Amino acid sequence: MKSSPLNSEKFDTSRANEYGRQSRIALAGYDACQDLAACMLAASLGATRSAKILVVGAGGTAQEIVAMAKLEPGWRFTAVDPSEPMLEAAKQQLEANNLLERTAMHLGHVEDLAADESYDAATLIGVLHHLDGDETKRQILRSIRAHLKPGAPLIVAGNQYAYASQPLLLAAWGQRWRQHGASPDEVKVKLGKILQGADPPHSEAAVQKLLHDAGFGDATRFFSSLFWGAWLTCKVV
Fold first, then answer.
1. Please, what is the average pLDDT of the chain?
2. In the chain, how many domains are there?
3. Measured between alpha carbons, how far is 94 from 88 in angstroms, rounded to an integer?
4. 11 falls in which pLDDT band (50, 70, 90)?
5. pTM above 0.85?
6. 107-145 burial, b for 16+ CB within 10 Å, e for fewer?
7. Domain hosting residue 26, numbered range
8. Which of 8, 71, 142, 206 measures 20 to 30 Å from 128, CA to CA?
9. Where would I find the H helices in 46-166?
C-alpha cells in the first residue's frame, strides 16, 4: 500500500461506529446531497444503463453507493478507503442493502488500483477537506483522473472556507449540534475539533482551481449547506 496524505488512523473504530449519525448532524441535508449526486451522475452519463463507478473515500455509510444503486440497477462500483474500520462499516451497509455483489471493496488508495482499471465516473465525497495542503488535494484528484475515461464526470463534495473566516456559519454549525441535543460544553468541544481537524479549500474558486490544475473542467455546484459544497466536473480530454 502506498503512502497517502490522508491519515487513516483518524478514522478509527470509534469514529466509524458513530460516523453515520455524526455526519447527518454535521451536514444538514446529508442524504439529499447523496441523492442529488446520484442524479447528477445519471444525468451526465445519459442513456447508458451499464457503468463502472469509482467511489473514493467510500467508508462509513456508503450512502453514495446506496443512492446510485437505487437509481441505476446496472451500475457497478469500486469502493476505495484507506481505513479498515470505515470500509468495514461501509461493507455492513452495503450488505444490508444487498449491494455487495455489485461492489468491489478496496482497502487502500486510488494509487493502488491496477493501472489499466478505468471507470465511467467517480465520486470524492467528504475527503478533500481532510487532506493537508493543496498539493495533496491535487494529488488525489490527479490519481482519480488517471482512472477515468475521457470526458468522464466526477462528483466532488466537501467543506470549503477557512472555518474561522466564517464566524456566522461556524456559530450556526454549533447551533445545529445544539438542535440535536448537544450541551454547551459539547458544542464547544466540537467547534474546537472542526477548527483544528481539517484543511478545506478556502473558497469555491479554490475548489475550481484545484480541479483545473488536476485536469478537470469547470464545475457545476448542485448542493450547498453551511460550509459544505458539492460539484460535478468532467475530465478534460
1. 92
2. 2
3. 10
4. low
5. yes
6. bebbbebeeeeebbbbbbbbbbbbbeeeebbbbbbebbb
7. 8-161+200-234
8. 71
9. 63-71, 84-96, 134-146
- Cα distances (Å, whole numbers) of residue 212 to 13, 23, 141, 169, 209: 35, 28, 10, 27, 5
Q: In angstroms, rounded to a whole number, what is the distance separating the alpha carbons of residues 158 and 156?
A: 7
Q: How many CA atoms lie within 13 A of 43 on its CB side?
A: 11
Window from 5-9, 13-17, 47-51, 99-103 with minimum mean pLDDT = 5-9
| pLDDT tens, residue by residue, 97-134 | 999 999 999 999 999 999 999 999 999 999 999 999 99
Q: Measure the CA–CA gap between 108 and 87, rounded to whole angstroms.
A: 10
**Average pLDDT score over residue span 41-51:** 91
Q: DSSP state, 153?
A: E
Nearest to 79 by CA among 68, 21, 217, 71: 68
How are strands ordered across the β-sheet holding 220-225? 103-107, 75-81, 51-56, 121-125, 153-159, 228-234, 220-225
Same domain, 121 and 224: yes
